[in-house]
Amino acid sequence: MKLKFNKVPLFLMMLMILSNCQDDNHQEIPHDTAFFIDYRSLTGQSDGIAVIELDPEAPDFGNISSRLELGVGVLPHHLYYNQSKNKLYSTALGGSYLYEIKAEKDKIGQPKLVSATPIDTGENTVGENLFFTNDGRFFMTFMGGAGGLKDGSVGVFNASNNKLIKTIKAPIQDNPNKFIMYPHGISVNEEKGLMMVTSTIHPDLTSGFGNTCTLIDLNTYELKETYQVADSPTDLSSPVEVLLLRGKFPQYALATTMLGGDIWIAPYNATTKKYDAFTKIFDGSKQGLGWTLEMYIDDNNRLYVSFADPGKVLVFDISNLPNLKLLKTLTADKGAHHMVFFKTKKGKEVVAVQNNLLDLPNLNSGTISVIEIETGKTLGTVNLRSKYGMLPESIEGTNGPSNYMHH
Questions:
Q1: pLDDT tens-place string over residues 120-164
Q2: Measuring CA to CA, which of 20, 173, 377, 389 is 20 to 30 A from 117?
Q3: What is the dihedral of CA 200, 392, 282, 263, to 10 degrees?
Q4: Cβ–Cβ contacts within 10 Å for residue 174, how many?
Q5: What's the confidence (pLDDT) of residue 31?
Q6: Taking a C-beta distance cutoff of 8 angstroms, is the pair 126, 170 a contact?
Q7: Across the strands, what pairs with 214?
Q8: Of the candidates 381, 392, 255, 401, which has an alpha carbon nearest to the alpha carbon of residue 340?
Q9: Per-residue confidence (pLDDT) for residue 108, from 0 to 100
Q10: What pLDDT score was predicted for residue 109?
Q11: Using CA atoms, how far apart are residues 214 and 135, in angstroms rounded to an integer?
């Protein structure tokens, strides 16, 4: 539609202009290409959270505009929004293990980090993943539990005041058939009243390894079943993330195995009201892939899975599960891990991939790759290791979650 400005009264034009300006004459502009990142310092300084521009077409691409220090050795690990998308949280491997992050916008609408409030996690240590439910709770996996050799726990919190309501514990020593140990990944299907957590690895990365996922009643916190997600009982595959598909998607559970390098699947059984056994649906080793990590789903039945070694993101069609159809492979850097999805200012649909896993050798590129989804072309790379002396740990949008479904 073409506007004929000569027919618009001058005072209306002025009113329109003034309505788009703030009192201080700074025009607020959208910053949909600015993102939060958790980071660890490589220079012995404080770890923290930063705001970074990730549009390769922007003049300030790769620049950090705001930073919030959490402390030396805190190791912030995963960023999450609450159910209403009005609170931001970061879990941490050290420090207080969980923080609520306050952010605001400056005079031109640029996201700005303000403060971090530690949250009391009780005896629970080594914070990992969060899941917020519609009934005012959130759940958090603690890979370290209370600090034992074969420990691990799930914290239940009040989402309105961040108070710990309950700690779910089920030591393998008490029942080797139903247990929680080294939990990392978590996913919830509220409609079915089910939650599932993975058994990954001891926090010191050497003292113990898991190869299971455990199904938990969302309301009674009773353990319903522990599933083997490995080729054999002695295969220490380390399931790292789990995703209970829900809503319009086929009703399956998906799991990635960090050391197995695979994707596993289990169908929901309406009779037992549990999931059936897990089977391997994708063998990463046959594709030269390992260290399978994160799963994201878009609104078009596409599943994005990161493989830290050698640094790839595979895109699958999940329309016909349990058949998993590989659509394309995107090349990132070693340590390919978390992702965010957005459009550049010129309208290109891209995925930004954070490339680092716990600063492990050959999995710690310390970069963020911005890849055009349609063509697979890398449009830009930010090297935080060389530019800022830091490694990105996770990534999230500054205007709410930058994905359709994560966990």
A1: 999 999 999 999 999 999 999 999 999 999 999 999 999 999 999
A2: 389
A3: 30
A4: 9
A5: 56
A6: no
A7: 197, 226
A8: 401
A9: 83
A10: 84
A11: 22
Q: Which of 314, 329, 332 is closest to 368 using CA atoms?
A: 332
The answer, yes or no, to whether residue 280 has pLDDT greater than 90, is: yes
For residue 98, which amino acid is it? L
Asked whether the predicted pLDDT for residue 368 surpasses 50, the reply is: yes
**Pick from 210, 216, 266: nearest CA to 243:** 266
Query: Averaged over 82-95, what is the pLDDT?
Result: 96
Please count the other Cβ atoms lying within 10 Å of the Cβ belonging to residue 163.
Answer: 11
